[in-house]
């Protein structure tokens, strides 16, 4: 063999010998052991109206297969009507949910045990959420929803933090106003309620003889007229809450506060903070 051909042949042989181990290893790798492709974010059905409002903020629209039927009602929903119209709704039955084939179901802690059991037996993951009692618990809830859906929570939490900080600054600048939140049925929120925390942050609170009113305490019209606060926030339609005698209180303002602003945490806290800031001025509108 000519020297040049021999050298080329020898070089090719050495190259092939160096590649054989790699080729052998490649041939032995099973398809299942290859690096897996990134998984798509989970599809979600929400049965919890408070989580609905968080979900549409932190998850991509295509992930949200349906929201709870509560968010369909503009009068009580925590979601803007134009946003809510972009989504499907369910009545919360297991049959409706299963037909949508979600990866994840977000529900209230009050979900019917039979519904949860049916969903889990058929392989659906169900996560439940209670009502946050503080702003910090609301932040944790937002972060949890984002974690479950592969979404992003920082922007929403930052917006809420800015709104709450605004309340703190308002209180520091203007002091406290003796305020009663009068809810449906003429009851009040207690210390453990999220709305109470928000009212306090804005300097809007009251006590009777130095004692704090408890959760669900009833406040009659007569007792209110006998010891009126500076500001009454009416969040109900009981007869006593709209009695003409309230308008005769010369040193007391009565204002409406839409209950949908304090049913939930999440983005509702931003709207609530904005409303409370407007209420601190004597010329504020009575629009809830």
Strand content: 5-15%
Order of SSEs, N→C?
HEHEHEHEHEHHEHEHEEH
Which whole number gives the mean pLDDT? 84
Give the structural class: alpha/beta
The level of helicity is 40-55%
CATH fold group of the largest domain: Rossmann fold
Name the CATH superfamily classification of the largest domain.
Answer: Nitrogenase molybdenum iron protein domain
Largest sheet: 5 strands, parallel
Protein name: ABC transporter substrate-binding protein
Domain Fe/B12 periplasmic-binding: 44-243
Pfam families: Peripla_BP_2
Signal peptide: 1-24
Please sum up the structure shown.
With 288 residues, the protein is an alpha/beta fold.
Would you kindly provide a written description of the structure presented here, covering whatever features stand out?
The chain has 288 residues and is an alpha/beta fold. The chain has two domains: 44-130, 3-Layer(aba) Sandwich (Rossmann fold), CATH 3.40.50.1980; 157-279, Rossmann fold, CATH 3.40.50.1980. Helix content is 41%, strand content 13%. The protein has ten helices and nine strands. Strands 3-2-1-4-5 form a five-stranded parallel sheet, with helices on both faces. Helix 2 (49-58) crosses helix 6 and helix 7 (154-174) runs parallel beside helix 10 (268-279). The radius of gyration is 29 Å and the shape is elongated. The protein starts with a helix and ends in a 9-residue tail after the last helix. The relative contact order is 0.11. Mean pLDDT is 84; it is low at 2-30. Keywords: Signal. Pfam families: Peripla_BP_2.
